[in-house]
Amino acid sequence: MIGAVDIGGTKVAVGMVDDNGKVLSRVEAPSDPHDYAGSIQWIARSLRETAHKASAEISGIGIGSTGPVEPIKGEFGEVDFLPGWRGKNPVKDLGEIFNVRVALENDGDAAALAEAGWGAGRNRRRLIYVTVGTGIGGGIILDGELYRGVDGAHPEVGHQVLDPAGPPCSCGFRGCWESLAAGPAMAAWFRDHASAVSERGDGITAKQICEWAQQGAPLAQ
C-alpha cells in the first residue's frame, strides 16, 4: 500500500492507494503556505489515519506537489503558493518518520505518470497531461518515459507567456497561461465583468463558474 500525498496551493490531500491505483481512503485540509513543520506533522498523522482506515501497512510514500520541486533531491524549489515550504525536504522528513522510501514529483508529472500507468494514457507511448487548479501545470510522457528538462527541470507549461499585455503572474511575468486561465484567474475575470452586468461576483470560485456554465449562464460560459 502506498501513502499518497497531494500538495496544492489551497489544499493538501492524503490517502492510501493500492497497486491498481485505487484510492482506499483519503482526507484533506487547507494548505498552510507558511507552516511547513506543522503541515508535515498533519500529513504524518493523516497517513497513519488513512492507513488504519484501509487496514494497510504503508510500504512507500509518493508526493505530488505544486511546483517547482526538485525530485532528485526531494526538495521544494521556489514554490509560488507555499513560501514557507521553499527549500524544505519532505522526502527526508517523511522517510525518517515512517522508515520507508519516499518519492517527490511535481503534481503535473505525477498525474501524467498515473494516467500512463492506470488511466487514459495506459498502453500509449506518448501523452501530455494538463492540470488546472490554483495554478496550471502539466506532465509529458515520451516513449513511455517521463520527460525532464535540463538538470531534471519540469516543463512549466503554465508559465508560457500567451499575452504580454495580460495580468501579472506570480512568476514575475505578465500574461502567462496560469495568470489567464487558472482557478483564481477565472474568478478574478468573473468578478471584473460581473459588476458591469449586475451579476454577483463576490466570493465566486472557479468551481461555481463551471457549474453555472453547465447550467447555461452566459457570463460563466
The best one-word shape is: globular
Number of domains: 3
Distance between the termini: 42 Å
CATH topology of the largest domain: Nucleotidyltransferase, domain 5
Structural class: alpha+beta
Number of helices: 6
Order of helices and strands: EEEHEEEHEHEEEHHH
Per CATH, the class of the largest domain reads Alpha Beta
Radius of gyration, in Å, reads: 19 Å
Helix content: 25-40%
How would a textbook summarize the main sheet?
5 strands, mixed
Determine the strand fraction and express it as a percent band: 15-25%
Task: Please describe what this structure looks like.
The chain is α+β, with helices and mostly antiparallel strands. It folds into 3 domains: 105 residues, 2-Layer Sandwich (Nucleotidyltransferase, domain 5); 46 residues, no CATH class; 33 residues, no CATH class. Helix content is 29%, strand content 24%. It contains 6 helices and 10 strands; from the N terminus they run βββαβββαβαβββααα. It is globular, with a radius of gyration of 19 Å. The mean pLDDT is 91.
